[in-house]
Structure formats: structure tokens, C-alpha cells
Amino acid sequence: MIDTATSRLTPVMRSEERVTPLELFFDLVFVLAITQCTALMSHELTWESVAQAMLILGVLWWSWVGYAWLTSVVDPEEGAVRLTIFAATAGLLVCALCVPTAFGSSGGVFAGAYGIVRTAHIVLFLLASRDDPALRRSTIGLAVSTAIGVCLLIAASFADGGLQLALWAIALLLDAGGPYFFGVEGWKLVPGHFAERHGLIVLIALGESVVAIGVGAEAGVNAGTVVAAVVAVVVAGGLWWLYFDVVALVAARRLEHAAPGRERNAIARDSFSYLHFPMVAGIVLVALGIKKTLAHHHDELATVAAAALLGGAALYLLAHVAFRWRNVHRFSTQRLVAAVVCVVLIPLATTVPALLSLGLLAAVLVVLVVYESIRFAELRDRLRHQLAQGAVEG
Questions:
Q1: Which residues on neighbouring strands pair with residue 300, listed in sequence order?
Q2: Does the structure show a pLDDT above 90 at 363?
Q3: Can you give the pTM of this predicted structure?
């Protein structure tokens, strides 16, 4: 009886590549966190609120990343993992609820809930690594950086102003930087699952752009609002195309073909855990710009809103440039040029109607998509057919 009970609580190593419904359920809470970060910036649109939201998003992103690695090692629906995922979901939900006042009255609650989420993650990794010394060493290293990060967030809840921002930034850098400094040799993952999980979180972030359209149109629907909504969908569709048409497929194949151990883990850490964050952050900033555009499409965008709309798109594109270089060591000149164009358009966006600024962004993305579709048509067709054939055979 004791052995049976113990086996039910022991984490079961993952064997399938599919993302489970429980993981998707966990990700739904991250949707709320993204929405709350957008609301924080939108409520009082200042550089400080943007910095706060990006730091909060970064901390929550790193928490999500931890569970993406965990559930790529152990089956989330077996043993004690299922119950722990539910507990972590509740903790992450509390963090998301605290986002609007995380730099104020709810700072301590946020730090405490975040600490619980990360502690559960570390404990499960320790249980899963009982017979794997290399994984155990990596987990202990992660536990150290996590403990430092949580302690700094607790300290930040007693500070304010620049000191509080600095403590949050240091906490994020030390926590996220831990795996970079103590190495990646001991980690394990299932490539297909890991790549799909990150693709789904990008899709979730893009969903925030769609939500922003609805929230921005709350004042009423007229001809201008309809046009702005359609253009906003073009922008969101362009961002989707640039990631999912080929990039996501090639990245997944690169991760799968990498040698298990140091090489595969380093790619997973750099390309997915690190470089997907500026992609998600860029999408969130674009969503903020869309929200402000829909609300006041005849007026000029404020400087911060213009920087969010066009700067967010530039950040997203620059992350793609780095992502491609890290995966296949090839430089995407066209995406770099598009990012530069977006940055150059920011001053103009503060002097023309917001709808025109949104239209200019849509035009940049459409031109980029069309250029790549024509310029790399043969390569794109071959890659998509090869990858599709590989998926069928697999």
C-alpha cells in the first residue's frame, strides 16, 4: 500500500510530445497576466508605467518558462504534478490579480504568491531528479537564483520609486540569468513539446491584440472604428504570419535535430526561454498601441503610445532577427530594415491621426510578408513541404 501511494505521488517522466489540456489551462492564467500588464500601462500611460509593466511581465514570463521546462521533463497529469500545477495556477492567478498595484499596496502579496509558484516548481524538479545527478545539480543552481530573485522582490515591496524599479530589474536579471551562468548540461526536454508550448504562448499573446481591439472600441462603433479594427487585424495577422508561416517550423526542427544535452538545451534556453520574451513583450506593446488607437483613432497618439505601437513592432522584429541568427546563423536583413522603419515612424505617429499610424504599421508588415513570400518562395515551399512530410511520417 505504501509503495502504491508513493508511486502515485512520484513525478512520471514525459514520453509524449503533445501539449496537454492541463498545460493549456495553466496558460490561461498567463492570458490574464498579459491583460493586466496592458491595463496597467493603459490606465496611466507613462514611461514609468511601461517600465513597471515590462518588469512584471518579465518576472511572470520567467515563472511560465520554468513550468514549460518542468512539463517537458515530467508528465503534468501524472503523480503529484497535477495537484502542484493546480496550486501553481492559483498562485499565478494571485500574481496576475496583483499586477495593477504590484509596485504599490500589493507588492508583498505579489512577491509571496510568486515565491509559492517558484517553490512548487523547484520541489517538483527535485523530486523528478532523484535518480539523475546532472538534473539535480542544475535544479539546485536554479533554486539559488530563484531564492535570490524572490528575496529581492520581497525587499522591493518595502521600497518605492527608482530603488523599487532597480530591485525588480536586478531580481529579474539574476533569476533569469541563473541558467546562463550555472550551465545547461543537466536539463532535459522533449523538443516537439517545448517548441509547441512556446508557439502557443505567442498565439496567446497575439490574442491580447484582438482583446485590445474590443476594449478600444468600447466607446462606440462607427466607420472610423470599423476601419481601425480591420487594420488592427491586419497588424495582428502580419505578426502571426512572420512567426508561424515558416519561422516556428524551422525553429522546432532545429531544436529536434540538435544533439541532446548541452547543444539542445542551450538552443532551448536562448531561442525559446530568452528570445521569446521580447517577442511577447513586443506584441503586448503593440496591443497597447492598438487599444489607444481604437479609442481615439482621429487624434494623434501620445509619445508613449506611439512608441508602444511602433516600438513594440520593432522589438518583435528585432527578436526575430536574433532568433534566426541563434538558430541557423543567418541574418534577416529585411526584418532589421522593417524594425528600423518602425522606429523612424515613431515621431511621425505623434503628429498624424492614430488610424494613419496604425495603417503605416500594417503597410510595413504587409510589405515585409509579401517581400519574403516572393523572395524566398521556393525555399519557403520546400521547407513547409519537407516539414509537413516529416510530421506525417513521424
A1: 353
A2: yes
A3: 0.91
